[in-house]
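Everyone, carefully examine this protein record:
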Amino acid sequence: MSDDSNLKNDHQVQQPQDQSVSSEPPAKESPPEDELAKCKKQAEEYLNGWKRAQADFINYKKDETRRFQEFAKFANEALVRELLAVLDSFELALASLDEKNPAQKGVYIMKSQFEHALKAQGLEEITLNVGTDVFDPAFHEAVGEVESDKPPQTIIEVIEAGYMLHGKVIRPARVKIVK
């Protein structure tokens, strides 16, 4: 029987021995107001961080939109540059035609339509007042100098028209200027 009693003792649930009452007061917990203030401060920090991230993302989207618009604006620049040679050919053709030739009217109409199509793409001719405008290297390319009674650097002759695409010079006007 002693084996039975040993088995019964082994199966008994052992109770923890450390159930004595502690004489120390419980750890001091912070008042609920302090916890609430901490939580509010943390929530405000998270909200401000989220707002900054949102503002950064909005600015990023605006920058990307602007960058894409700039790219789209000048994406056809190479094509427009190539078409300037065609426009120059129209000018040469019109200069060589006899004014009484009925074909000249058709060439003028085609040139006008072509210029309108290029203008719709953002092309503008650089306007010059021969004899009064002064040479500006940002818009003009001097290909010759002549003696004249006009002030120095005055544009005296336009050899080839210059063009801008959306305000950017893609071909400077080739001009002769006064020495």
The chain has a mean pLDDT of 85.
